[in-house]
Automatic annotation (TrEMBL):
Glycosyltransferase RgtA/B/C/D-like domain span: 68-230
Membrane topology: Multi-pass membrane protein
Transmembrane segments: 14-33, 86-104, 138-157, 177-195, 215-233, 240-260, 266-287, 299-320, 326-342, 354-375
Protein name: Glycosyltransferase RgtA/B/C/D-like domain-containing protein
Location of this chain's protein in the cell: Cell membrane
Membrane found in the keyword field: yes
Species name: Candidatus Schekmanbacteria bacterium GWA2_38_11
One GO cellular component, as annotated: plasma membrane
Chief localization: membrane
Length: 660
């Protein structure tokens, strides 16, 4: 008896030692060089939102994101400690480490401690889990809370204690506040409790003992989850109206193959050997566990495949853009069955009189080797290296250069790392056009046709999405925009004859000047101004600039070679329902109106303002044009202290001739 207890104690110590080593290794893989890489676009969006006050942050999320708020709240509070990449990512690295321990507990609970240890090891070295444990997004946190939800659900069903059901409700609520795919988990839990005989029995339908039944406790727990979600419900309803990214039409077979291929490649260790090896062990784990651990095996398969099926249904019904990281939470369930496959393979080899220990060690070594290449890439390869791209531009651009990007959110990423307005001012410096585009792409044919002078690839920043920086030494000229006056701005008598007025003028639909305050910033190359209402006004307001002469100086671009202008600027507003715009009006030498080009923003959201968008568009110059006027159009503002900001406005003339 004493010898048996001693052996048990020795085995327990060894078990704890191995678990400690696994968790330390998991921590190393998730924290090492955590802040060495810059943010990618989704991290920039999350951290930008989080640095506002909580009410503003929640408003931004509900207006632009189809995501719950917990991830942003975590980022908000951690930002009080600092605003570096390391600080913002640290909570998610910690949640990834904790998930390894929870996976051990869950694997041990379902099977044995051997499966628990193998599961913890597999999750610790999983490239899929490491990547998103080093990311300032919700995926690592979601995996932790969803796994805790299932751990407490399983314990609560088995022991049927109020404390366990309470922990189940709390962990599930936290999961739901992290990602809406928690609904898949809840659906699988509902299916499980009514499917498995050890989860549900005739005693649970005994009305004399209904208050002690597992069904009653489960339903009560679901009610508590709903109550805890109620404060976010109005925001969630608003989010249902947000436009999402969708895929083009595809056949049912292609959709299923796409989702399955993406999922299993990420759940394993990539394509090729890693994919095959993990799938083989997964299948063997299922096959060898069905008889001895029937309930546990089907329980894991229910969670796994119901979530996959739900994802496929979403893709088919609403053409939702599937990303494997959205279902990272099913990874531990997959790895538990892989762990069963490894354990049973070792047992099989032992029965064949093959030494189990070296065979078992060899399998784990092979798994580590097929995963190590992917793990190495995590520390070497950027997702999107906006930090280096912004630094390169700030070192090589001069303040009169024109910067064009595609898509327009690239401005946001570059601005996050470097103020590109503070650029070098060099005398006699030839200016040109810079073009930045992610996804390893180049200038569009339309842009090449406008710029004329060929673009040269100056620098590439490799990553999951390679960022290319191109340059064209095109002949361009930045037009000086007219300063706003210090005093009163006059009203036009006839806005249709505004070309005859050499000063700033305003007009409204009602003819009454709204009560506004104007702040301006014309320092250096910065051209910005803000209009703030002191009272709501319901009329459209137009602010018209003095005339700007096209190509008037001797060394400027000749008028006959001037075919295009390029306008750059940012428009921000206090309310997402305010849609300001800019008109470029063309006139001939006799002040006769020729035509008008309307400019509007590409609408996006940032964490610094409620509504904003960039204008970055070419403008065709009509024949006979000699000068222009800029009309700033501001729609009705129905709230006191509403405002519109026109920021960092720039106007360039583009020569259609090639440089010699």
């Amino acid at each position: 008896m004493r010898e048996e207890l001693a052996n048990t104690f020795k085995a327990e110590k060894l078990n704890l030692l191995l678990l400690g080593i696994i968790i330390i290794f998991a921590a190393f893989l998730r924290v090492f060089m955590l802040g060495s890489k810059g943010f990618w676009v989704d991290e920039i969006q999350s951290t930008a939102f989080s640095q506002n006050d909580i009410s503003t942050m929640l408003r931004y999320i509900s207006q632009t994101e189809f995501s719950p708020p917990l991830n942003y709240l975590v980022l908000h509070f951690v930002s009080l400690l600092g605003k570096t990449e390391f600080i913002f990512r640290l909570p998610f690295a910690f949640s990834g480490i904790l998930t390894v321990f929870v996976a051990y507990k869950f694997g041990s609970l379902l099977f044995t401690k051997k499966e628990g240890l193998i599961t913890a090891f597999l999750l610790a070295i999983s490239p899929f889990h490491i990547i998103y444990s080093r990311d300032a997004r919700m995926y690592s946190l979601f995996t932790l809370f969803s796994l805790l939800s299932y751990l407490f659900f399983y314990i609560a069903v088995k022991k049927n204690k109020w404390s366990h059901w309470l922990f189940y409700s709390l962990s599930t609520s936290l999961s739901l506040y992290t990602h809406y795919f928690t609904l898949f988990l809840i659906l699988s839990q509902i299916a499980a409790i009514f499917t498995f005989k050890n989860f549900f029995s005739s005693e649970d339908l005994n009305f004399k003992n209904i208050f002690n039944s597992r069904i009653f406790h489960f339903l009560l727990s679901l009610c508590l989850i709903v109550l805890l979600f109620v404060p976010w419900a109005p925001y969630f309803i608003r989010q249902l109206t947000i436009s999402q990214i969708f895929i083009p039409s595809a056949s049912l077979g292609n959709i299923i193959l796409w989702v399955l291929d993406e999922t299993f490649r990420w759940l394993g260790a990539g394509s090729g050997t890693g994919l095959f090896f993990f799938l083989l062990l997964f299948a063997f784990g299922i096959f060898t566990s069905i008889r001895k651990f029937n309930e546990q095996t089907f329980f894991l398969l229910l969670v796994f495949f119901l979530s996959l099926l739900s994802s496929i249904v979403l893709v088919i019904t609403v053409k939702w853009l599937f990303q494997p990281r959205y279902i990272l939470f099913i990874l531990p369930f997959y790895l538990i069955l892989v762990a069963r496959g490894i354990s049973e393979t070792a047992n099989l080899l032992n029965r064949l009189r093959v030494n189990k220990t070296p065979a078992f060690s060899l399998m784990l070594a092979v798994i580590f080797l097929v995963s190590s290449g992917q793990i190495k890439n995590i520390f070497v390869l950027e997702k999107e290296n906006w930090k280096a791209a912004a630094e390169y531009l700030s070192k090589n651009m001069v303040h009169n250069d024109l910067l064009i990007v595609k898509p327009s959110w690239v401005y946001w990423c570059l601005d996050h790392y470097k103020d590109l307005l503070n650029l070098k001012e060099l005398s006699n410096q030839n200016t040109g056009v810079w073009f930045v585009r992610p996804y390893d792409a180049g200038p569009t044919e339309e842009l090449k046709g406008i710029i004329k002078t060929p673009f040269v690839l100056k620098k590439s920043f490799p990553g999951w999405n390679t960022i290319n920086v191109w340059f064209s030494p095109s002949r361009i000229k930045k037009l000086p925009l007219p300063d706003l006056p210090q005093g009163e701005i006059k009203k036009t008598n006839d806005k249709n004859d505004s070309a005859s007025f050499p000063e700033w003028y305003w007009s409204t639909a009602s003819g009454n000047l709204p009560l506004i305050q104007m702040n301006k910033n014309f320092s250096g190359s910065k051209y910005s101004f803000t209009l703030t209402t002191t009272d709501p006004f319901l009329q459209n307001f137009i602010l018209l600039s003095p005339q700007l002469i096209l190509s008037s100086q001797p060394d400027s671009i000749q008028r006959e070679s001037l075919q295009n202008l390029f306008f750059y600027g940012r428009i921000r507003a206090s309310d997402p329902n305010i849609f300001p715009g800019i008109d470029i009006n063309f006139y001939d030498l006799s002040n006769n109106f020729i035509s008008c080009t309307n400019l509007f923003t590409d609408v996006h959201m940032t964490g610094d303002l409620t509504y904003w968008g960039w204008i970055s568009k070419p403008i065709k110059v009509p024949s006979g044009s000699s000068f222009i006027k800029i009309a700033f159009k501001i729609p009705s503002i129905n709230k006191k202290s509403g405002w519109v900001e026109f920021d960092d406005l720039k106007l360039y003339e583009l020569d259609s001739n090639h440089l010699n």
